[in-house]
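Dear colleagues,

As part of the handover before I leave the project, I'm documenting each prediction I ran so the next person doesn't have to rerun anything. This entry is a single chain, and its sequence is reproduced below.
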Amino acid sequence: MKIEDIRAKTDSELEFDMTNLKKELFDARFRASMGTDANTGRVRDLRRSVARIQTVLHERALGVRGAAAK
């Protein structure tokens, strides 16, 4: 997920996306540890997407980059 896409969403949409990404991350980590998933790079992508969403939500809470979505 790109940062432009994240910044274009509202806070409630970001919260919803973050919960879904966290569930997917849990499943991907579990599959990677069991050795059943060939796409272990997906874990890295999911972690970074969650971090991006958290960063944007924190910026909005502090008022660093504008309080509202576009």
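The radius of gyration is 14 Å. The mean pLDDT is 90.

All the best with the project,
I.
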